Amino acid sequence: MNDVLSKPVPPLHSGILLVSPAAHYPAHNWSNTVALMRALGRKGQNVRTVIFSTGTETIPPELTDRVDPVFSRLPPGWKKVAAGKWQERRFGALMNLCETVACLFKAASIAKRTRRDAETRAVLHFIGGSYWVVVLAVFPFRRIRFVYSLYGGMLSGPAAGWKARLRRQLGKLLRRAVDTGRLDFTCENEFLRDQLAPLVGTHIHVIPYAVDEDEPLPSREEARRRLDLPPDEKIVLFFGTHRREKDYRTALNGCGKLPGPPLALFVGKVISSNDPREVIAECRYPKARVVDEFVPEEMTKYYFAAADVVALPYEANFSRGSGVLIECCRHLRPMIASATPYFSAFLARYPCGVTYVPGDSASFADAMRRMLADRLDFRAELERARHDHSWKAAAERYLELYS
Predict the structure, then answer these.
(1) HSE-CB of 149 using CA atoms within 13 angstroms
(2) Is the pLDDT at 11 greater than 80, yes or no?
(3) Predicted confidence band of residue 3 (pLDDT cuts 50, 70, 90)
(4) Are 401 and 40 in contact (CB under 8 A)?
(5) How confident is the model at residue 102 (pLDDT cuts 50, 70, 90)?
(6) Which residue has the higher pLDDT, 221 or 91?
(7) What average pLDDT does this structure show over 375-383?
(8) How far apart are the C-alpha atoms of 103 and 122, rounded to whole Å?
């Protein structure tokens, strides 16, 4: 275990530190952190980033001197405990807590040593980690302002046992923390903001999921050659980790009603009991391929480019947003999405796809028929949505929040 806390650190000219405790996990936290570092750099803010340890995700060469790990290698046994499906990891919550605390003290130390002057208040922006560690840190670290990016609810889940007894006190603690004026949260859509507003008031801000709008995209023909996919087959892509809320049965049963069912391409790691291979067998779907892995960033564009349409088949009670929806816009691929509140509102604002009735395979078949046969032109709206959800636009909003 090689502690690098004593590593010399250049001055923190911007006053901004990104903190990404879960950077060593194969998830979105680290890619989002890297993209935000680059976007802020283009705005003249050369921020530093603190991570728990190097590991699964690599550090881009041009950012190496601005990334400060607490440990140069994961502590003994840590990688083994952290392996496996997220929901099934032993001691996952405890590890998340420890990693966040370690990154907090590392970041606070850097901020204290490198402030431009005694009047500067550093900003620590946490992308992942335990938000309760950040909430509690507000009280002892009075010269630091905190921002935390939320990708889910707060005080969520069934209120039973000790959680039910403590929920009211935890809510009070949360309100005390935001009342200091030194803690703000961000989320990716208005629906999550409206759920959290009763807890944190005006200290929850919508900054949408962001993508790189300048990345060159491969052609469909190039992508299919690269992935060894049939050149003339219709392909529907199911992209992203396979979570319980995704309703693959409705989608496959709907595709099965078409005269020529498209190739169903499932790309993403299975992290729950919702295994597409089992659903394919159950539905006896004739043409499918499953890529069970966390797809490297550089390969994502090929899967989207190879597809004719992307499916987002969520259950009716799904109320959150989806990064895959914005990835469709990034890669200029139209989508079929279940008519849940967020998806319906998004496609009303940016008509770049169609919706279907959740759980209704006939409705899904009709949507797929329109997408594949009518050849609707969604490109202009896809480009508009991609621009509005670019890292360039997100960086402006983050800078407003930091100030």
Answers:
(1) 25
(2) no
(3) very low
(4) no
(5) very high
(6) 221
(7) 83
(8) 15
3-state secondary structure of 263: strand
Confidence of residue 348 (pLDDT cuts 50, 70, 90): very high
> What's the CATH superfamily of 220-388?
Glycogen Phosphorylase B; (3.40.50.2000)
To 10 degrees, what angle do helices 190-200 and 341-349 make? 120
Report the largest interatomic distance among the alpha carbons of the chain, rounded to a whole angstrom. Answer: 71
Residue bearing tokens 């300048």: 214
The secondary element (H helix, E strand) that includes residue 285 is none
Ranking 162-176, 259-273, 297-311 by mean pLDDT, the lowest is 162-176
User: How far is it, in rounded angstroms, from Cα 206 to Cα 210?
Assistant: 12
Would you call 256 helix, strand, or coil by DSSP? helix
Radius of gyration of the chain (CA): 22
| 16-212+390-402 homologous superfamily | Glycogen Phosphorylase B; (3.40.50.2000)
pTM equals 0.78
Distances in Å between the alpha carbon of 176 and those of 116, 139, 182?
Answer: 29, 9, 11
Angle at the Cα of 239 from the Cα atoms of 345 and 298, rounded to 5 degrees: 115
Domain boundaries, the chain: 16-212+390-402, 220-388
DSSP 66-103: GEEEEESSPPTTHHHHH-S-GGG-TTHHHHHHHHHHHH
Supply the pLDDT for residue 278. Answer: 94
